[in-house]
């Protein structure tokens, strides 16, 4: 195997492509924070004390209240990530010489698409492993159901606002959970004709305690069986609803529910190429770094819908 080479054209192509293909849902729940180094500290907001209002008054000639990292603040560690894909010499022969970059770009698109799907799965693995579902609610399916999704979600909105002093502004709903909400008799009863045409996300949001909630429905699926076995597709979010506080432009200091720490925006550091003679192939490799962190555990509620 020969040494790898930095491919400028494909790197620029991959960085632009990643902005187009990047998972809006993963970025919605764990937005990017670009950090100056691969390791460092960040503020954790998993304790009610972190949301206390600070006394900002300053005596004449006295010091200002200073915000700084404490010794107990946690650290992020952006670990290296990589995917690679071969281009067999036979593929090049079949593609012809008309567009020498077309095959490389097609293969790079496959790499970036796979990285996006992998990142979304990792984000929701982190969510599901960190936030326990609220008990006693979420039984919203069935034509004769009398449990009211609106009332139960409103109670969680109020609980979050009380705990943190911030109104939750985002909801992520798995496709199976959204189907249960749209067909719930208590929801349909609020909209004449909804039984025939269905309830939209905007209509649903208008009923909630915070009508400005940004609601996203998770539709991306993954194959839960290993390569070589029969496909078994499963919705990544599943029958879950996550209510939380998020920020479009988070920093190391703000109380977003989750964050993805990266050293370079978009999740592509470099595209490299190398020759693998034993397989008669050129290999494309995409490298990046990331660390997905739960940064404010009390800024979110999870409801398992059944």
List the helices and strands and how they pair.
Layout: E1 5-6, H1 8-21, H2 24-29, E2 32-34, E3 39-41, E4 75-77, E5 79-88, H3 89-95, H4 102-128, H5 149-164, E6 170-174, H6 175-182, H7 185-188, H8 194-197, H9 201-206, E7 214-218, E8 221-223, E9 233-235, E10 240-244, E11 258-262, E12 270-276, E13 281-294, E14 300-304
Helix pairs in contact: 1-4
Organism: Coraliomargarita algicola
Protein name: Phage major capsid protein
InterPro entries: Lambda_capsid_assembly (IPR053738)
Number of helices: 9
In total, the number of domains comes to 1
Biggest sheet architecture = 6 strands, mixed
The portion of residues assigned to helices is 25-40%
Portion in strands:
15-25%
Quote the CATH topology: phage-related protein like fold
The CATH superfamily name is: phage-related protein like domain
What structural category do the secondary elements indicate? alpha+beta
CATH class, named Alpha Beta
Give the CATH architecture.
Alpha-Beta Complex
Characterization of this structure:
This is Phage major capsid protein. The longest helix is centred in the middle third of the chain and has 27 residues, at 102-128. The protein has a single domain, classed as phage-related protein like fold (Alpha-Beta Complex), CATH 3.90.1690. The chain is flat. 30% of the residues lie in helices and 24% in strands. Strand 12 (270-276) and strand 13 (281-294) form a beta hairpin. Helix 1 (8-21) packs across helix 4 (102-128). The strands form 4 sheets. Strands 1, 2, 5, 11, 12 and 13 form a 6-stranded mixed beta sheet that branches. With 306 residues, the chain is of the alpha+beta class. It has helices spanning 8-21, 24-29, 89-95, 102-128, 149-164, 175-182, 185-188, 194-197, 201-206; strands at residues 5-6, 32-34, 39-41, 75-77, 79-88, 170-174, 214-218, 221-223, 233-235, 240-244, 258-262, 270-276, 281-294, 300-304.
């Amino acid at each position: 195997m020969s040494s790898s080479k930095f491919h400028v054209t494909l790197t620029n192509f991959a960085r632009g492509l990643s902005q187009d293909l990047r998972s809006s849902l993963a970025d919605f729940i764990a937005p990017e924070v670009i950090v100056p180094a691969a390791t460092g500290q960040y503020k954790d907001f998993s304790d009610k004390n972190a949301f206390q209002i600070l006394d900002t008054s300053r005596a004449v000639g006295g010091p200002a209240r200073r915000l700084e990292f404490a010794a107990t603040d946690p650290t992020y560690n952006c670990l290296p990530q990589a995917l690679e894909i071969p281009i067999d010499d036979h593929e090049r022969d079949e593609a012809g010489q008309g567009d020498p970059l077309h095959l490389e770009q097609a293969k790079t698109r496959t790499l970036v698409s796979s990285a996006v799907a992998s990142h979304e799965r990792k984000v929701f693995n982190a969510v599901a492993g960190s936030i326990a579902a609220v008990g006693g609610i979420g039984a919203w399916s069935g034509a004769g159901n009398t449990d009211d999704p609106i009332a139960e979600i409103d109670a969680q909105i109020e609980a979050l606002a009380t705990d943190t002093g911030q109104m939750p502004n985002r909801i992520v709903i798995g496709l199976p959970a959204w189907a249960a909400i749209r067909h719930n008799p208590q929801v349909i009863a609020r909209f004449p004709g909804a039984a025939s045409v269905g309830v939209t996300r905007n209509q649903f949001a208008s009923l909630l305690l915070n009508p400005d909630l940004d609601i996203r429905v998770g539709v991306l699926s993954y194959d839960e069986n290993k390569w070589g076995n029969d496909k078994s597709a499963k919705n990544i979010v599943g029958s879950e609803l996550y209510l939380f506080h998020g920020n479009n432009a988070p920093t190391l200091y703000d109380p977003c529910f989750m964050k993805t720490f990266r050293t370079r925006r978009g999740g592509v550091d470099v595209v490299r190429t190398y020759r693998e003679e034993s397989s008669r192939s050129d290999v494309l490799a995409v490298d990046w770094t990331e660390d997905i962190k739960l940064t404010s555990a009390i800024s979110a509620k999870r409801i398992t819908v059944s």
